[in-house]
Design goal:
Elements lengths: L1 H24 L2 H20 L5 H18 L6 E2 L2 E2 L4 H14 L3 H9 L1 H11 L2 H13 L3 H12 L5 H9 L3 H27 L7 H26 L4 H25 L1 H33 L3 H12 L3 H10 L8 H26 L1
Antiparallel strand pairs: 1-2
Helix pairs in contact: 1-2, 2-3, 3-12, 3-16, 4-11, 4-12, 5-10, 6-10, 6-13, 6-14, 7-8, 7-13, 8-10, 8-16, 9-10, 9-14, 9-16, 10-11, 10-14, 11-15, 12-16, 13-14, 13-16, 15-16
Length: 357
């Protein structure tokens, strides 16, 4: 395995040199496959190193995004079947998987740690929506793309926050509870804040968005909870398969959105990336230091930081699709997803090392 890791790192270094050479010479026909292969090989290299494993999936996402940017038509339609029709079914599968990993105990924690849950939820549904609103206003981005920034901010916490809480040694029980409760509240709060903050940019139909979230999130999660309650431990293959299926589904969703919004990304991509990074890091900083200021312990403050900074970008993408604005409102969630995984993994590693020292 060590030899495999060494050779993949060497191969990725050679490919990186190739990218620079082909870009300098203007050989675009060679540049595209080299970039895709570079990220794919680097992902294999990272997967062979324990400390870098957490970044391997994100590098595969970059490979998929590169493919979508260079060859968008492949990811838009196959034999007259529009691939964006896969997004909602894939999200339903992801949310079902989330439900199968939950139990009644996740909700019992609300009673056991009410202070952390209340602080986390207030931070979740105030910090990110209003920062998103401010960034959308001052970014100078087109209205529908700017509305996508607010949409990310109004979404509940994502599953990735639970993984980061676990890696960093934060309060995992609180993380699971906050993700579950914020997700269940999202049909009410996400449309409310979108109507309040984004209605000037795009028309927001509260009831339509409410139903979209019920359909995409709540019903699949309830189905997963029911399945877990009656069939817990009977289908161990499903427990092992669902995380991988969810990761593959996320990669497919991001690729389709990138292909759909390719032209917009080429014109405003750098600005959008900068805005998304500010949004993401603001969530970490205000979530963490706000929690410390109010009196939460170190582990719980770390948890709130992840819950606030890491949003359910997949749900935001699904809502954008349901609104018929995937190529515009869907861009910010598509950019936010991979970037939050990089920043979240880095922060989790830093806190993990700090805990051990």
């Amino acid at each position: 395995m060590k030899d495999f890791g060494k050779w993949t790192f060497i191969a990725s270094a050679i490919l990186a040199i190739g990218i620079l050479l082909f870009w300098y010479l203007g050989w675009l026909s060679y540049l595209a496959p080299t970039v895709i292969l570079f990220f794919s090989v680097l992902a294999l290299a990272f997967s062979s190193v324990e400390k870098l494993k957490g970044f391997a999936f994100t590098l595969l996402i970059f490979a998929a995004v590169a493919a979508a940017m260079f060859y968008p038509q492949i990811f838009l339609e196959i034999n007259s079947f529009k691939l964006n029709r896969l997004i909602v079914p894939l999200l339903i599968i992801i949310m079902f998987g989330m439900g199968t990993s939950m139990g009644i105990s996740d909700f019992v924690q609300v009673v056991k740690m009410p202070k952390g849950v209340i602080i986390g939820l207030i931070a979740q549904f105030t910090i990110m929506p209003f920062i998103g609103f401010g960034l959308a206003k001052f970014s100078g981005l087109p209205p529908e793309i700017a509305a996508g920034i607010i949409l990310v901010g109004c979404s509940p916490g994502g599953l990735a926050s639970n993984v980061m809480a676990y890696i960093s040694g934060a309060n995992l029980a609180l993380s699971l509870t906050l993700t579950a409760v914020s997700t269940l509240l999202s049909p009410f709060l996400t449309p409310f804040f979108m109507k309040l903050l984004a209605n000037e940019l795009v028309p927001i139909d509260y009831l339509a968005m409410f139903w979209s979230i019920i359909k995409i999130v709540i019903l699949p999660i309830l189905a997963g909870l029911t399945f877990n309650h009656f069939a817990h431990g009977k289908f161990k293959w499903l427990d092992k398969a669902m995380p991988k299926v969810s990761m593959a589904a996320i990669a497919i969703i991001i690729t389709i959105i990138t292909a759909s919004g390719r032209n917009s990304l080429l014109s405003i991509g750098l600005i959008l990336i900068m805005v998304v990074l500010v949004h993401n890091f603001s969530g970490y900083l205000l979530g963490y230091y706000g929690s410390k200021l109010i009196g939460l312990d170190e582990k719980s403050s770390r948890t709130v930081a992840f819950e606030v900074g890491m949003q359910n970008a997949g749900l935001a993408s699904g809502i954008a699709l349901e609104m018929g604005r995937l190529a515009t409102m869907g861009l910010a969630p598509a950019v936010f997803g991979p970037l939050m995984n990089i920043s979240g993994s880095s922060l989790a590693t830093i806190w993990q090392r700090k805990s051990k020292s």
